[in-house]
UniProtKB/TrEMBL annotation:
The keyword Iron does not apply. It catalyses: GTP + H2O = GDP + phosphate + H(+). Component of the Dom34-Hbs1 complex, also named Pelota-HBS1L complex, composed of dom34 and hbs1. Belongs to the TRAFAC class translation factor GTPase superfamily. Classic translation factor GTPase family. EF-Tu/EF-1A subfamily. One of its GO terms (molecular function) is GTPase activity. This is Elongation factor 1 alpha-like protein. Residues 31-252 form the Tr-type G domain. The chain holds residues 380 to 821 of 821 of the full protein. Its main location: cytoplasm.
Length: 442
């Protein structure tokens, strides 16, 4: 990059405070962060339920809510006011700063939650895949009203649940919604619980990671407060928010080697001529650290950094950050690249084995490989076996073709070396469609 001013600049030396980042982090008691994806059949009440959570937990102010109520009533759709509370993403995404997918956040005393997919988008499945690739757990919304439950189970409910499980999501909270429409019928709830849990265990969820809550998003019963309906008195279990609060975030591995996928690269900022943003997936870093960028293998120095838009000396896994860099030519920095420490770098791969859920027929074919924002062209070079959905045991070795809905182990080759490691969440697309999604194995 001889044309570039930065590359001819002299090396900048940056003082490190040599902090023990983990003990700094542990000094302050703080809320855990957890993110989840919302799945379920269209009209199951996903948007209404999420709107209810945001409204009850004061993530939206009363005036905004009142405004939505008036507007919704004006067009004769009063029941939609809650669903409108959900940010549909466009504005935040246009700013595209640090947060990858959606920006709906709310907090309890214990946890700061992010809803990583705002339901209601037209192009739902690709959005859900993007959401599932970041989620700590899933909330499955089921419509308990007679008739709808059965059609939901046949439709998207199954597809969505299988998809999130294939992407490595282990915990699922089932919100049995619209209980008001069936007079809080306990038998109805138990019938749904039994059917959905046998389906979810067949899809590979462990019974201990599945929970069911009878609720009404619209009325707010058993969401953030216990239902006062006399017919609902039989249920003494957790409310939805109590259940969400028990969730352990899976991805915030503080003690593991540093990993951060670059979301955006900015040049010519006020603070610094060159910055990158992203969410730290694992490990920690501090001002003065040297980092390694893969796949280029180039090093850079951290001049300064921001956590959630505020200046900071250090940052850890789970935080959204901006790094202001020195001593690197910007041509080595691209969205999708991986930041790691020179001591324990991520490897560049040109092929890998993955266990996927097939959405369309799979066979040796050309595909685009997506991991978060990173995507590269390549091909399925081999189908190793089809697998049992629950146990993962081989069903048929070396099949010629994998049918939609089946789980299979396949080998994928890429046209260029890409920084990847298990258990990365992988999506394969072809001709504009998602053909498979799953976890990288080796
Ligand atoms: P989504 O497509 O899954 O996001 O569903 P929506 O949140 O848009 O809800 C679909 C319809 O179900 C709307 O008319 C809602 O008002 C209605 N609805 C949602 N939750 C409840 C509930 O708990 N009880 C009742 N009676 N209706 C609900």
């Amino acid at each position: 990059g001889g044309m570039n001013n930065l590359s001819v600049e002299e090396k900048v030396s940056i003082k490190s405070k040599n902090l023990d980042v983990l003990s700094e982090y542990k000094k302050v008691e703080r809320k855990k962060a957890a993110s989840f994806v919302v799945i379920g059949h269209v009209d199951a009440g996903k948007s209404t339920l999420m709107g209810r959570l945001l409204a009850d937990l004061q993530a939206v102010d009363a005036r905004t809510l009142e405004k939505y109520r008036r507007e919704a009533e004006k067009i004769g759709k009063g029941s939609f006011a809650l669903a409108w509370v959900l940010d549909q993403g466009s504005e935040e995404r246009a700013r595209g700063v640090t947060i990858d997918i959606a920006t709906n956040k709310f907090e309890t005393d214990k946890t700061a939650f992010t809803i990583v997919d705002a339901p209601g988008h037209r192009d739902f499945v690709p959005n859900m895949i993007a959401g599932a690739s970041q989620a700590d757990f899933a909330v499955l919304v089921i419509d308990a009203s007679t008739g709808n439950f059965e059609s939901g189970l046949k439709g998207q409910t199954k597809e969505h649940a299988l998809l999130v499980r294939s992407m490595g999501v282990q915990k699922i909270v089932v919100a049995v919604n619209k209980m008001d429409t069936v007079e809080w019928d306990r038998e109805r709830f138990e019938e749904i619980e039994q059917q959905i849990s046998s389906f979810l265990t067949a899809a590979g969820f462990q019974p201990k990671n599945i929970s069911f809550i009878p609720l009404s998003g619209f009325h707010g019963d058993n969401v953030t407060r216990r239902s006062e309906a006399p017919q609902a008195a039989w249920y003494q279990g957790r409310t939805l928010i109590e259940e969400l609060d028990t969730s352990e975030p899976f991805s915030h591995a503080l003690e593991k080697p540093l990993r951060m996928t670059i979301a955006d690269v900015f040049r010519g900022g006020v603070q610094s001529p060159l910055s990158i943003s992203g969410r730290i997936d694992a490990g920690s870093l501090q001002v003065g650290d040297q980092i390694l960028i893969m796949p280029s293998g180039e090093k850079a120095s951290i001049r300064s950094l921001e956590v959630d838009s505020a200046p900071a000396d250090w940052a850890v896994a789970g935080q959204n950050i901006v790094l202001n860099l020195a001593n690197i030519d910007p041509i080595h920095l691209r969205s999708g690249d991986v930041v790691c420490s020179p001591a324990s770098p991520i490897q560049n791969l040109t092929s890998f084995t993955t266990k996927v859920l097939a959405f369309e027929h799979l066979m040796p074919m050309l595909v685009d490989i997506h991991r978060g924002r990173l995507h590269v062209p390549g091909r399925i070079s081999r189908v190793v076996a089809t697998l049992d959905k629950g146990s993962g045991a081989p069903v048929k070795k070396r099949p010629k073709i994998v049918a939609p809905g089946a789980v299979a182990r396949i080998v994928v080759e890429m046209d260029q070396a890409v920084p990847l490691e298990a258990p990365a969440r992988i999506v394969l697309r072809a001709g504009g469609n998602t053909v498979a999604a799953g976890l990288l194995e080796s």
